[in-house]
Amino acid sequence: AAAAHERLAAALAGSPLAALPAGVPFAWISSDAEDGPAIAARLASRQVFVAPGGLWRDERHVRAALRGPAAVDRLVAALLDG
């Protein structure tokens, strides 16, 4: 899990997106430019599904599973693609 978080953080560096560091197999992702529902909708349009943070009473974040390097790369590609 730690390696997946490091991979995600490195890929998002310099973008308006950030993922809180953690030792669990999911990431808590936010953006300076979008709220959680907007991030979730944008990812869903790319067939990447995340849990909106509103489920945890936080509309600024989404929760994404990190299931290995290929999944992290797919998540990053969807996050950074417009």
The helix-and-strand class reads alpha+beta
Mean pLDDT: 95
The tally of helices reads 3
Low-confidence stretches: none
Largest sheet: 4 strands, antiparallel
User: Which band does the percent of strand residues land in?
Assistant: 15-25%
Give the total of beta strands: 4
Query: Could you state the order of secondary-structure elements as H and E?
Result: HEEHEEH
What is the CA–CA distance across the termini? 27 Å
Shape: globular
Share of helix, binned: 25-40%
User: Strand sequence of the main sheet, in spatial order?
Assistant: 1-2-4-3
Radius of gyration, Cα only, in angstroms? Answer: 11 Å
Give a brief outline of the structure.
The protein has 82 residues and is α+β, with helices and mostly antiparallel strands. It contains three helices and four strands. The protein is globular and about 25 Å long.
Report what the structure shows:
The protein is an alpha+beta fold and 82 residues long. Helices cover 39% and strands 20% of the residues. It has helices spanning 2-12, 36-44, 69-80, and strands spanning 17-19, 26-31, 51-52, 61-65. A 4-stranded antiparallel beta sheet has the order 1-2-4-3. Helix 1 (2-12) packs parallel to helix 3. The longest helix is centred in the last third of the chain and has 12 residues, at 69-80. The termini are far apart. The mean pLDDT is 95.
Any chance you could write out the topology, listing elements then pairs?
Elements: H1 2-12, E1 17-19, E2 26-31, H2 36-44, E3 51-52, E4 61-65, H3 69-80
Antiparallel strand pairs: 1-2, 2-4, 3-4
Helix pairs in contact: 1-3
